[in-house]
Specification:
This protein is α+β, with helices and mostly antiparallel strands and 311 residues long. Helices cover 28% and strands 23% of the residues. The longest helix is centred in the C-terminal third of the chain and has 22 residues.
Length: 311
């Protein structure tokens, strides 16, 4: 028995917890997955993010275009927000600082020589605050929490059985019908924490007869392995969270099912157990490096400023 849940295992676990027979027609498997996707985004993911242990953190780099100062926040970013932004040059990061609109309109601030390393947010984009069209950097890097993909039936997902890094041909167990005409696919890791390896990859060719998908070789991630999954963009049949939290998601959804069925006594029992599970979650996902706590240093320390000649 696997120690993680795919979509079907999650559904089976939820039905057992809520004592829902297969014969009833009110709560369908598709409806259970809808509940699961809501619970992921409204409860499980915020719980994990609140621990500040970067389980969903990813980095994405975009090219800096001459004269362009408006750069869109990646649409997969959870809550359409970023953790950090920085310019990159010769492998080194140069921090970007967010400033409020009150400083943007301040004439004294506008004359600051280091304003190129500042930005403000407008709608779904960050705006580099610089009077020059030449920002002096080739790359802009974002760090953000990636939104988990929506859980779907395993029939919509392909499992990798072979990877040819010379031809770019990936062999899969079978080509799902939903891949017909697909323009963008995601790679999802089988092993914990079942993360999205890369997303919105455009295939070169999908061969139904031979159960293969051809990609541009450079689009195949180096960490991709046999057993990993290929899904339509923004879909998955693996819960994109640490395996240890999959039972808690099942418990959350079981509560939603019992609420929908009007079973108040069963709901109370489920919620009591869920409260204990949430408490125990702290031991599982808090402080990911137990033997080496994070050490913080002040970037505005007076001694550091004197040594570097900066204030």
């Amino acid at each position: 028995m696997a120690n993680y849940f795919n979509s079907q295992a999650l559904i089976d676990s939820i039905k057992r917890r809520a004592n829902v027979p297969d014969s009833q027609a009110m709560i369908t498997d598709a409806g259970i997955l809808d509940f699961a996707n809501e619970e992921m985004l409204l409860n499980l993911v915020p719980l994990v993010v609140s621990k500040h242990e970067d389980y969903f953190l990813t980095e994405e780099q975009v090219q800096v275009i001459h004269g362009v100062k408006n750069y869109q926040i990646p649409y997969r970013a959870l809550g359409t927000k970023i953790e950090k932004a920085a310019f990159v040059r010769d492998g080194k990061y140069y921090n970007l600082h967010r400033v409020p609109l009150s400083e943007i309109t301040d004439s004294n601030y506008r004359n600051a020589p280091y304003s190129v390393n500042r930005f403000y947010i407008k709608d779904e984009s960050i705006i580099i605050d610089s009077s020059s069209d030449n920002l002096g950097f080739d790359t802009l890097s974002y760090w953000y929490n990636m939104r988990p993909n929506a859980l779907v039936s395993s029939s919509r997902v392909a499992v990798i059985t072979n990877i040819d890094l010379i031809t770019g041909i990936i062999t899969i167990n079978a080509v799902p019908e939903v891949f017909a005409g697909a323009t963008k696919l995601d790679f999802v890791k089988l092993n914990a924490p079942h993360r999205i390896i890369d997303y919105d990859i455009v295939p070169v060719l999908i061969d139904n007869a031979n159960s293969t998908i051809t990609f541009t070789v450079l689009d195949i991630p180096s960490v991709l392995q046999v057993g990993d999954h290929i899904c339509l963009a923004q879909e998955t049949d693996l819960v994109n969270a640490p395996s240890e939290l999959h039972p808690m998601l099942a418990q959350m959804v079981a509560a939603r099912v019992l609420e929908a069925l009007g079973d108040t006594q069963g709901l109370q029992n489920i919620n009591d157990k869920l409260a204990k599970m949430e408490k125990n979650t702290d031991y599982l996902i808090t402080n990911r490096v137990t033997g080496s706590p994070i050490k913080c240093s002040s970037r505005k320390n007076l001694n550091r400023s004197k040594r570097s000649g900066r204030f």
